[in-house]
Amino acid sequence: AVVLCAYLERGSVDLRDRAVIELGAGTGLLGIVATLLGARVTVTDRAAALALLESNVRANLPPELQPRAAVKELTWGKDLGNFPPGAFDFILGSDIVYLEETFADLLQTLEHLCAERTVILLSCRIRYERDLNFLKMLRGRFSVHEVHYDPSKDVHIYKAQRGGCKDEI
Fold first, then answer.
1. Which CATH number do you get for residue 154?
2. How do residues 96-120 score in pLDDT, each as one tens digit?
3. What b/e readout covers 46-73, taking b as 16+ CB neighbours within 10 angstroms?
4. Domain that holds residue 117
5. Cα torsion for 124, 120, 58, 10, to the nearest 10°?
6. What is the pLDDT of residues 13-66, one digit of tens each?
């Protein structure tokens, strides 16, 4: 999350007044930074993480920015009806590619949330063959490019977009 936050803080993308969703937020650092950079952010995770996530978002955002950050439950591949398809300009995720059994659900969630204009930014370490398998699966559905690599932390940032899918809003 720290590497992707630094990437965003450098102004690599303009988040001002953009609709952003963070997947698998954990502590919420990435969503908090995106909110501070001017985005309207939906910070998501599974039910078990929501209390800590909500607490961190409230503790780390000034009161005037708190309405720009909503904490919502999202289990990949489920709950998708609670999120309008294609409603987000950016989808952010840090260190969410690690459980192979979640890959298909994560891809289904990304496809549901994506419009043609949506930019997906994922930061991760490539630790195992399964991580490369996820990137291969992602490339099967999206146009994917590495946009940054931090050698000190061994973290890659990938940008993915639909690139020509037809069923758009």
1. 3.40.50.150
2. 987 888 899 999 999 999 999 999 9
3. eeebbeebeebbeebbeeeeeebbbbee
4. 1-162
5. 80
6. 999 999 999 999 999 999 999 999 999 999 999 999 999 999 999 999 999 999
